[in-house]
Amino acid sequence: MPPRKSSAAKDVILPMTNDYMQQIVDRDKTHEFRRYLISPSVKRVWFYLNAPESHLQYICEIDPAHTRNLGDPPLPEEGAGNKEFNARHKDWDKYDFAYRILSVRELSAPIKLAEMRDKYGMKSAPRGLVYVPEGLLSGVKWEEQRLLWSVDQEKDEENQKDACPNFPTA
Fold first, then answer.
1. Burial class (CB in 10 A: 0-12, 13-18, 19+), 144
2. CATH code, domain with 89
3. What pLDDT, in 10s, does the model give residues 80-126?
4. Matching InterPro entries, A to Z (predicted)?
5. Using CA atoms, how far apart are residues 67 and 105, in angstroms rounded to an integer?
6. Residue 119: Cβ within 10 Å count
C-alpha cells in the first residue's frame, strides 16, 4: 500500500546527503534548514541517506519550525548554519525554516531502498518530504532504536551535575 498522510501525521521521511547527516550525528549541526514549512504535527524525521548509501538510517525528533520573520528571535549562534540563517546569508536564500534537532536515533539495521519498496510500498527513493508508511511505523518502533543523543538527556545530566558537584562526566 502506498504511503498516505494521516490527519495528524507525526513522522516524515526526508532525503539527506551523508555528509550533512554526519554533522547532525556529531552535533555540529543543531538545526535542519528547509525551504518549506513542515506541519507542526510532525515530531520526527526519518532521514533517507541519498546514493551511494540509499537507505533509511536515522530518526530525529524535531521542534516545530523556527522562522526568521520580523520580530522572531535569532537562532543560537552555535551550530553549523545557524549564524548564516540569522544573517540571511545569500547561500541561505529561501531557507526560511529551521527545525531544531532534539534527538538522534540510529536504526538497528538500515532500511535499504529495495526493502522500502518491497515491504513498505514506497514507489521510489524519497526526493522530498514523504510521510512514513504505516507499515514502517508499526514494523520499526522509533523509540526502540539506539539513542545517540538527546537534548533531554543533556538537561538531565546538567541537573545531576548541579545537584551533585562530583557527578562524573562522559
1. exposed
2. 2.30.130.30
3. 999 999 999 999 999 999 999 999 999 999 999 999 999 999 999 99
4. PUA-like_sf (IPR015947)
5. 25
6. 14
Structural domain that includes position 120: 11-163
Classify residue 170: in a domain, yes or no.
no
Q: How many domains does the chain have?
A: 1
CB–CB of 50/16 below 8 Å? yes
Q: How far apart are CA 21 and CA 149, in angstroms?
A: 14
Question: The cell 524525521 sits on which residue?
Answer: 45
- The pTM assigned to this predicted structure is 0.86
Q: Which residues contact 116 (CB under 8 A, 6 or more apart)?
A: 56, 122, 125, 136
CA–CA dist 13, 20 (Å, integer): 15
Residue whose C-alpha cell is 533509511: 56
Helix intervals (H) in 1-150: 18-25, 82-87, 113-118, 134-139
Collapsed DSSP state (helix, strand, coil) of residue 128 = coil
Nearest to 16 by CA among 55, 68, 44, 62: 55
Q: Which helix (H) or strand (E) holds 147?
A: strand 146-150
Q: How far apart are CA 11 and CA 27, in angstroms?
A: 21
